[in-house]
Amino acid sequence: MEPRDLSAHTVYRAGRGIEEVARELGLDPEEMVKLASNENMFGPSPRAVEAIRDSAGRMHSYPKSSHADLVEALAEKWDVTSEQVWLSNGGDGALDCLARAMLEPGDEVLVPEPGFAYYAMSARYHHGEVSEYELSKSDDFAQTADVVLSAYAGERIVYLTSPHNPTGAEFTTEAVREIAEGTDEQTLVLVDEAYGEFSDSPSKRSLLADRDDVALLRTFSKAYGLAGVRLGYALVPEAWADAYARINTPFSASELACRAGLAALSDDEHVERSVETAAWAREYIYDNLAADTWESTGNFVLAEVEDASAVAEAAQEEGVIVRDCSSFGLPECIRITCGTEEDTEHAVSVLNDVIEVVES
């Protein structure tokens, strides 16, 4: 017996963890800096940590009331109905929910290249087909309506990332509206705003007020620092919001995740500190890294080097972990997560030394 043909499926390559790398290289994990996975530099929301501790004694219960409480809080935050909030196991879980709700076998989706690998993976898991629109390096990875619509051929879902990973580029609200107006009425325009808190631009939430073909994805993994508990959600049009009850897996967001998310929503101080430090770190990297960079609105910066693999490997041996973007189809680029001021300064110093050696 064998599984179905998975030859068209790609493998998601997560950034390596400090403990894993430290064991391999014989380094002290306490002296390492990980700036590879776009995690929060200050860790989880302190209020969320407290909520997790307080909730530990309720782990025998299914997350019924906590799920409802978090949905209600998010509905109030975004000024939508509770039915429009689709909680999920991480942002990738929201992608799966939307794929289950939208895709018939053989339906096509349109994804960015480079871009988050799980868009295509989720579509293929649900027996969809994948087409791509190219974000051109020669055009500084500009995200415009023309770039998307020129590649559009009637796909059922069009994935937009704003801010975009790994480049940090954004779509304007008007560009998203133009894409929605330029695609078929049965095409969903899905805007991934996982890094939205780090941008000064407004969310595309306003489009949900008068359209039934735009949905948003948000996550607690980044600005709230809850990547480890896996909590995300989609905001969907009211017209078809009740589809969630038909496609959602039982209790897809855990009790701990829901309680942590509810607490994190009120932790404005943690989010503000994270966003402000990320803005500082972006500017520091632009100004001090010995490599060309692209302006970013996320909590990371993309930089161009001659050999990303060699630079990332050499930096890792010096205790600094950054993302080799070869898996994004950019073998000449590294992505540097915004760290604390101390970690960012140290990482830039190490990278500058490494780049000088590797590229000499």
Automatic annotation (TrEMBL):
GO terms for molecular function: histidinol-phosphate transaminase activity; pyridoxal phosphate binding. Its EC number is 2.6.1.9. The keyword Transferase applies. Its cofactor is pyridoxal 5'-phosphate. Residues 31-351 form the Aminotransferase class I/classII large domain. Keywords: Amino-acid biosynthesis, Aminotransferase, Histidine biosynthesis, Pyridoxal phosphate, Transferase. Belongs to the class-II pyridoxal-phosphate-dependent aminotransferase family. Histidinol-phosphate aminotransferase subfamily. It catalyses: L-histidinol phosphate + 2-oxoglutarate = 3-(imidazol-4-yl)-2-oxopropyl phosphate + L-glutamate. It is an enzyme of class 2 (transferase). The modification N6-(pyridoxal phosphate)lysine is found at residue 222. Pfam families: Aminotran_1_2. This is Histidinol-phosphate aminotransferase. PROSITE patterns: AA_TRANSFER_CLASS_2. HAMAP family: HisC_aminotrans_2. Pathway: Amino-acid biosynthesis; L-histidine biosynthesis; L-histidine from 5-phospho-alpha-D-ribose 1-diphosphate: step 7/9. It comes from Haloarcula limicola. One of its GO terms (biological process) is L-histidine biosynthetic process. InterPro entries: Aminotrans_II_pyridoxalP_BS, Aminotransferase_I/II_large, HisP_aminotrans, HistidinolP_aminotransfase, PyrdxlP-dep_Trfase, PyrdxlP-dep_Trfase_major, PyrdxlP-dep_Trfase_small.
